[in-house]
Model the fold of this input.
Amino acid sequence: MPERNIEFGKYGARGLKGHEALARRLDDLAGYIATPVTARRGLLARLHYLTRTEHARTAAREAGLTVTNRTLRAWLDGTRSPSRKNLERIERAYRTVRRENVARYLTARLNREGRGTRVEIHPLNQSQVDRPRQRVVEFRTLNVRRWDRIVAAWAAGDERALDAAWVDQVVDLGSQWGQYEYVTNIGFAA
Done:
């Protein structure tokens, strides 16, 4: 049975951890605001998202956006601009709240009433590895039926739990699951 890679990239292989690629794809599905927070339009869109209801304001405070209502009004009116540190807090709070809001919907869409979602796993890039050290790693597909732990860990921002949940799914590939710990891409739709 393969073990976890200890010295990944020692011979020139390139890729990223499977759970990181999975988190990127879930982020794409979450549909974040495309305009950067540094632009006025992006800042206003995020602030409106974080302040439009009392529930949203509470979630934003729990996510780390702890400024007064007066400061928020000044930012929304354009009389004051947030500092770089506050822009980072706004972005972090927005992403956290958005993940929490989208998590239940994504879980239902990906589970599809027990049918699951087909996931494409693109193997790591071995183009820089010397020919005798390259191994045969094929493109694989996997039907994931239980997304609850994966989406919950992603929504919470817990990388360890996301890694553990992803490995539990990849083990279904059989004895070769360790070859897919690092990948170039993971693709699926919801």
Q: What stands out?
A: The first helix runs from residue 18 to 30. The longest strand covers residues 117-123. The radius of gyration is 20 Å. The chain has a mean pLDDT of 91.
